[in-house]
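User: Here's a chain of 132 residues. Predict its fold as tokens.
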Amino acid sequence: MKKIFVGLIVAIAVVIAIVFIFGEEQSIRYSTIPEIVENAVTLDKKDVVITLTGKVTSQISKKRFWFQTADGESIVMDVKNEMVPLVPATDQITIKIIGKVDCETTSGEGVKIDVDEISFDQEQEPEEEQFM
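Assistant: Prediction complete.
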């Protein structure tokens, strides 16, 4: 009985270590919009956390915006209602978004980022009138 209990504890520890190691690797692996779009179906199913840095170029609806990275690639970002006031109203402010991929179909169409967090470079902290 004692051997079974120790074996079970070891097995659980191994599974936790594998999930931790591979989960961390996935959140770093995809760093460009083309990579995200290409792998959107898989990323959506696995709830991989994505981090992108860029600028908001325009507002689509109350909580949807076009987001563009420095390489000129764009993607739709969907922010929570309470986060809308954090979205800068100017494309002169660089922000970092952290969120998860949301893919509307199994064919990879309708890819967007559901934003969980928005942060600003401390030197570029916008003034109050520069928010949506």
